[in-house]
Specification:
With 407 residues, this protein is an alpha+beta fold. Helices cover 35% and strands 16% of the residues. It is built from eleven helices and twelve strands. A four-stranded antiparallel β-sheet has the order 5-6-7-8, with no helix packed on it. Strands 11-10-9-12 form a four-stranded mixed β-sheet. A hairpin with a 3-residue loop joins strand 9 and strand 10. Helix 7 packs antiparallel against helix 8 and helix 8 packs antiparallel against helix 9. The chain is globular. It holds the Pfam family Peptidase_A17.
Length: 407
């Protein structure tokens, strides 16, 4: 039993806490309240009526593991820790006599559950046979809570990784399943990704057939409510783009938000028509982002590290400054240049000169290149920084002693 619910006012939380005494007190208070008002039988009759009219389906017990799977269930609790995880159950259906039970497994939904899951998986990945060390290392670097996202070079490595990963985690009674891949083999129908299939990977949409990434806009639903500062901020934050390839698009509403701050408009006050029209025009064109795809693979084929170079571009204007990092890959037959990550910032409300904004762009470009090279474990690759601001380049290359740069 993962959660217990009580009838309550809509403005109050109905989910019971994980504290045993609090659960029991709230449950008894609810039962007593229903008894005093004579609504207990009516309350229980509502669910019976729903079942009879097929508004709710009775779930029969199913022992098929493919029916549902929670990875936390594989993690047991010691007898000492079980006293901290309790829940109530109505014995023989009598709500007046709740009985206390102890959890024997880690409960899904607790704040500590993701940590316990990750720590358990890391422990078993670190204690593997010598011939599984490569796969174990790849697993160690590729898990995000209970999802594994990684890349291999060819089909042979794909099959090896799948089989060895299952073997490693099966020792902890974890079941790896739901495998998806972008490998396509025309001679093997089983290895051909379905046409048009896409899945969610770390907040982005991954199109298996083209092996490309797009933005997930399913949460950006249009509505007819008045345009307010809160609405603009909420809409922008619904666009999850960790790579930053939509920066030119998401910058527009951020500039509008800055205009709202200059006008000192409150969060829920309807904005002037000049700002509202700009925002509505931007939102109508937002669906075009679905057509923008970027390749998932940064390094096609097996290229030597010596053929790779980071290129960092920095630029600024009166309203914003930005930086982006590309990876240039040279091979015998072709040269590719792929965007890795980009960041943009709205210029501060305090007026700054263009050269100083260019220096800010160089600053975030330097930090971005450092984090990208560290995350990709390519710290030794050459980096080339590009800026069209002679003033910023002079300040950076100058040998004079300057005051600390603070912003």
């Amino acid at each position: 039993m993962e959660d217990m619910l009580l009838v309550s006012h809509g403005s109050r939380p109905s989910s019971l806490t994980h504290v045993q005494k609090s659960r029991e007190r709230r449950l008894k208070n609810c039962i007593n309240s229903l008894k005093k008002t004579g609504n207990l039988e009516a309350y229980e009759g509502v669910f019976s009526e729903w079942l009879q009219k097929s508004h709710r389906k009775v779930k029969n017990y199913c022992n098929d593991k493919s029916d549902h799977y929670l990875p936390h269930r594989a993690i047991g609790l010691s007898e000492l820790d079980r006293t901290y995880l309790k829940f109530l159950w109505w014995e023989e259906g009598d709500p007046a006599k709740p009985k206390v039970f102890l959890y024997r497994r880690v409960v899904f939904g607790l704040s500590c559950s993701p940590y316990l899951l990750g720590a358990t998986i890391r422990f078993h990945r670190q204690n593997v046979p010598h011939n599984f060390e490569k796969t174990a290392t790849l697993l160690l670097e590729s898990f995000y809570v209970d999802n594994c996202v990684t890349s291999v070079d060819d089909h042979e490595e794909l099959e090896k990784f799948v089989e060895e990963s299952k073997t490693i985690l099966s020792t902890a009674k974890f079941e790896l399943r739901g495998w998806e891949h972008s490998y396509s083999d025309p001679e093997s129908y089983d290895l051909l990704p379905p046409e048009g299939k896409s899945i969610s990977v770390l907040g982005l949409r991954w199109h298996l057939k083209t092996d490309s990434l797009t933005i997930d806009l399913r949460d950006c639903v249009e509505d007819d409510t008045p345009v307010t500062k809160r609405k603009i901020l909420s809409t922008v934050h619904k666009i999850f783009d960790p790579l930053g390839f939509t920066c030119p698009v998401t910058l527009g509403p951020k500039v509008l938000l800055q205009e709202c701050w200059k006008l000192k408009v409150s969060w829920d006050t309807e904005l002037p028509a000049s700002i509202s029209k700009k925002f509505e025009r931007w939102r109508k064109e937002l669906s075009k982002l679905n057509k923008i795809e970027i390749p998932r693979c940064l390094i096609p084929g097996r290229n030597a590290p010596g053929n790779l170079t980071f290129h960092v571009f920095c630029d600024a204007s009166k309203i914003a400054y930005a930086a982006c990092v590309f990876l240039r890959c040279e091979s015998e037959n072709s040269t590719t240049c792929q965007l890795i990550q980009a960041r943009c910032r709205v210029a501060p409300m305090k007026s700054l000169s263009i050269p100083r904004l260019e220096l800010l762009a160089c600053s975030i470009g330097a930090r971005l290149s450092q984090s990208v090279s560290s995350d990709m474990k390519l710290e030794n690759l050459p980096k080339i920084f590009w800026s069209d601001s002679a003033d910023a380049l002079y300040w950076i290359k100058g040998t004079e002693t300057w005051a600390p740069f603070v912003f």
